Amino acid sequence: MNRVSGALDRLGRAVLENVEEMGKIVLLFISVLAWMFRPPLKLRNIFKQMEFVGVKSIFVVVLTGTFTGMVMALQGYHGFRMFSAESLVGGTVALGMTRELGPVLTSLMVTARAGSAMAAELGTMRVTEQIDALYVMAANPVKHLIVPRVIAGVLMVPMLTVVSDFVGILGGYFVGVHILGINSGIFIKNIKRLVDLNDIYNGLVKAACFGLILSLIGCYKGFNTHGGAEGVGRATTEAVVLASITILISDYFLTAIMF
Amino acid sequence: MIKLVDLHKSFGKQKVLDGIDLQIEEAKTTVIIGRSGGGKSVLLKHIIGLLRPDRGQVLVDGTDIAKLGDRDLNEIRKKFGMLFQEAALFDSMTVGENVAFPLREHTRMKEKEIRETVADRLRSVGLTGVEEKMPSELSGGMRKRVGLARAIAMRPQIVLFDEPTTGLDPVMTEAINRLIIDTQKKFNFTCVVISHDIQSIFEIGDRIAMLYEGKIIEYGTPEELRASRNPVTVQFLSGSIDGPIRIL
User: Fold this and answer.
1) Is the ipTM of this complex over 0.85?
2) Contact at 8 Å (CB) between A160 and A60?
3) Number of structural domains, chain A?
4) Residue A170: inside a domain
5) pTM for the complete prediction?
6) Which residues from chain B sit within 8 angstroms of residue A117, using beta carbons?
7) Biggest alpha carbon distance in chain A?
8) CB of A226 within 8 A of CB of A256?
9) B28 is in which domain, residue-wise?
10) Between chains, do A133 and B88 touch, taking CB under 8 Å as contact?
11) Who among B45, B90, B106 is closest to A138 (CB)?
């Protein structure tokens, strides 16, 4: 009996802790919104973060996008060939990329690259008292550190998704047309027939939501770091894990609402 | 003027401050001494509102900052400068940008004026031509100098020092002590230093307060402290392991 109540106790505590953490992240979001529109805008900081989150992620996003499109064409081809529908490969790759794989893979890559860096950077600033220094100089850390990162996340992840969608379809085209021998005209015609502009828009809305999630969680974990170098390491890991899980779960719900 | 009244603070079950009463005199250097991990930094963080007390008052020029909202607290904070233990320079900015930070944040100075002020403050701490360097290129002693230049950028009325000489060699320790004395004289600010470096305490302190088990158990001039008969103070100043201070 004791063992059962002990387990229930632990379970209850874990649930409470998680709910509390979610609440704190939402509160941070509200304070980000409040500071976002209060002048002066820290444009320099915002552009610096946009460069870091966006421009510097292009290479990994192009690489993952291209190969994802290529492998989808390959897998699709083998499946569709069984009932002689190889011509559908182009449309399938394009639909898959724009609706799902573009936004999700891009945001997972950006989480790994930039979300982790946000947690590590803010975490180091916390343990070396740089965040306290901001408070002491009457400067708000949310405005200086978190707002630029969240803006960069929300704006740049959709832009990277556009890149990812494009190179993914290009990769699919290369494999489908040049390696597997599908007719180029049919490949493109099927993309046009199956993919609606709304598919692309909705994919981009998802990407913006994921950008918000990854930057907010990265900043939250970094901002609340304690316990020296070990704490920074823990914050970084937790940020990547929590942001990735949240992105994948919210993807289901966003899809259920939008499509 | 700063006055602490019956200040209490606990973290979990651990009582760190247990009824602190202390008055810090204007334009003088008050050194707060005590054991490592004995709550000195916690006390300092209360003076500038980084921590809020469980009970008691922190009066800065008559205002209880423990009860202020963020906006009013920030107004009070503009009277302060603080040098952190590891200087806490922003490592994504150059030395010049670090010292200019409070000026850009709170004044409408033109770029030229900012540059001149930054150079002036750096000169006050014995540095020239380092504006373009990154903090990671500086030695520990230089970082502290830059931290002090940033702390006095706005000509604050009060400057707080969190263990300014910890981790420095004897020569650098002496240099930083001289610097604290000289800048205090030049800018005439109220100076609060926390330290457990006995040599520095007597060199820079006009008043010394001894923090032990969450209370101020001794307060006076360096001479008064040297003549103290309080066994805790005597043991602390002599660095003996025999006495009322428990080692573990």
Assistant:
1) yes
2) no
3) 1
4) yes
5) 0.88
6) none
7) 70
8) no
9) 2-79+156-238
10) yes
11) B106
